[in-house]
Each structure stands twice: as C-alpha cells, then as structure tokens.
Design brief:
- By secondary structure, the chain is mainly β.
- The chain has a domain of 146 residues: Methylamine Dehydrogenase, Chain H.
- Helices cover 0% and strands 53% of the residues.
- It has no helices and 29 strands.
- The strands form seven sheets. The chain has a five-stranded mixed beta sheet with strand order 17-18-19-20-24, with no helix packed on it.
- A hairpin with a 5-residue loop joins strand 17 and strand 18.
C-alpha cells in the first residue's frame, strides 16, 4: 500500500488524533469514531505535525524540497481564533517537534531549540549528540523535556526549559548494540519510558530521581517499538511495534525492581500497521492508528480478553 499520509499524532486530549496529507490536515474523534475537522492548504506541501490543548494549537512543517515553505519552516495555527500564532524559518531541517503551553520544541540535527510562541523569542537551546531516531517528548505541564543525550545510548532530561540556562541531567541504557529510539512521559510527568532500537528491554524511569524502576520484555529484538503510552490511572503501559503487536504491561508490579524483566499481561496482534501511534483513550480502551489509514479500538475486557474494532478513514491506493 502507498499511503498519502505524511504524518499523524494523537492529541493530548486523548480523544482525538490528527493526520497530515500532502496539502491538507484532518482531525478525527476516536469514540464514537468520525472526522471533526479538515483544512485544505493547497499552496503548501506539508510534512510533520504536532498539537497541543487537544487540537486547538496545531504546528505543521513543510516537506523537504519546496523552496519556500519546507522542512526548515513551521507554522502554528490557533483554531480558536483561526489565526497563525507563530511562524519561523530555521537554519536546519526540523526532524521532529513538540508543542507545549506557549512554547514549541524543535529538534534539529544535534540541536534542540525551545521558542516562546507568544513573543516569538528563543527561550533556550541545547546541543545534543547525534541520534538518528530523535527521541523527544515534553512533560504534560510543559516544564521539562526528554531529548537525545551526548550519544545514542543516553538522554537529557531538561527542566526549567523556559530559562536561557536550562537545567539538564542525563541517564541512559547499558545494553550493548542498542540506541535509544523513543521516549514517553506518563500523564502526570512522574515517570517516563525509554525504548531502544534493538535489545531486549523497555525501561521505566522515575523522572525525579532518574533511577530505573522497572524493565519490560519488549519481544522480538528485531521488531521496532514505534509508540508507547501510559494508561490514565498510571497502572499500565502499552506499546505498539512495527510488526503490529500491542503489548500491555502492569507497571504496578514494578516493586519487583528493575532487575526483574516483566512480561506483558496482554498481547494483541493487529493487521499490518505502518508507523503506528498508540493512545490510552480510557483505562480499558486503547486506540492505535497508522499510515495505513485505519483506527483500531482495543477494548480490554479483563487481563485475558479483549475486543478489536477497526474503522478505516482513508481510501486505499495500491
């Protein structure tokens, strides 16, 4: 399948998700499923997307090749006013980005920049080591970020990101032959997860102490964990991989310590997915969407039974 979707993300209301097509973007409600917003942007060739406050604020980049609005450029729309809140052209291509309360975090080659979207001024900047996976996440309170560290086996946790001299601490993994590829905060910012490219484990860290409190068995080391999310009640964590396997872990069992590799309590095999994104919609409902143009709603009946409903939202093209 050839997908026209350029990028997609679940929004932080945990009820909707956004997709970007070559010259438009659309917002979908998860439950009941349906499209709730669409915007044509025929004058642009679009690329990456990030959202904040549900889908009120939407940041979008161009694709790499156009001479004007390209992947060095960003526009942030405020859907409550219909206006462009922030726009800027950077010196380097934007690899990934995150939106927060009055700020945008831009991940470029070996550099992070954090901009004030109200005053259009630079809050802070950070030089980082090379990591082609560009792990980046922002805390729910918009006060800290996790980004690439000195090398691809480490991350920086940066606090006070609105200050010029932000505070940074580092931690990492010791598995041989792996690089950190993904990071994700829980709903209250007290924990975060790290997944690696290759290896056997997913790591759960305490965000205050930076100590690893649990390790999770990630499955086939050749598979790639492409999305992680914590449940609203903080009891569970779910992952979705390139091989379309959703694995749910009970992290209340982390009292056994980081040296005990935890097994999933539920495994769900979905149809083929391309660049999947996962989101806990409710404590017993997980959503998965991907470039294939399907939304999968997984309802957990108990720790052994589940139900999967699939809603297509894009016409297929072979």
């Amino acid at each position: 399948m050839i997908s026209p979707i350029r990028s997609l993300c679940f929004n932080d209301d945990h009820e909707t998700f956004t997709i970007v097509l070559p010259s438009q973007y659309r917002v979908f409600r998860c439950d009941p499923f349906g499209m709730i917003l669409g915007r044509e942007m025929e004058e642009y060739s679009l690329g990456n997307v990030a959202t904040y406050d549900g889908y009120r604020f939407l940041a979008i980049t161009g694709s790499p090749s156009p001479p004007d609005f390209n992947s060095k450029c960003i526009k942030i729309f405020d859907h409550s006013t219909g206006q462009i809140k922030f726009e800027h052209q950077f010196n380097e291509h934007i690899l990934t980005m995150k939106l927060g309360d009055g700020l945008v975090v831009i991940n470029m080659h070996c550099r992070i920049e954090i901009w004030n979207t109200n005053t259009k001024e630079l809050f802070s900047a950070l030089d980082i080591g090379l990591n082609v996976h560009c792990p980046l996440c922002i805390a729910p309170d918009s006060k800290s970020i996790i980004c690439s560290g000195q090398d691809d086996k480490k991350i920086w946790l940066c606090n006070n990101i609105r200050e010029k001299n932000l505070a940074k601490r580092n931690c990492g993994v010791e598995e041989k032959g792996v690089s950190i590829s993904l990071s994700a905060y829980n709903r209250n910012g007290t924990l975060f997860a790290i997944a690696t490219f290759g290896g056997e484990k997913i790591y759960i860290f305490d965000a205050k102490m930076l100590n690893c409190i649990a390790t999770l068995e990630r499955g086939n080391p050749g598979d790639i964990i492409q999305s992680i999310d914590f449940s609203p009640n903080e009891y569970y964590i779910a992952t979705c991989s390139k091989d379309a396997e959703v694995r749910v872990f009970d992290i209340r069992k982390n009292s056994r310590g980081a040296n005990v590799l935890q097994q999933p309590v539920i495994k769900v095999k979905l149809p083929s997915v391309t660049m999947p994104r996962i989101c806990w919609i409710k404590n017993d409902v997980i959503g998965v969407t991907s470039l294939d143009g399907d939304f999968h709603k997984i309802t957990l009946k108990d720790e052994t039974n589940f139900e999967v409903q699939t809603s297509p939202f894009l016409k297929r093209s072979d």
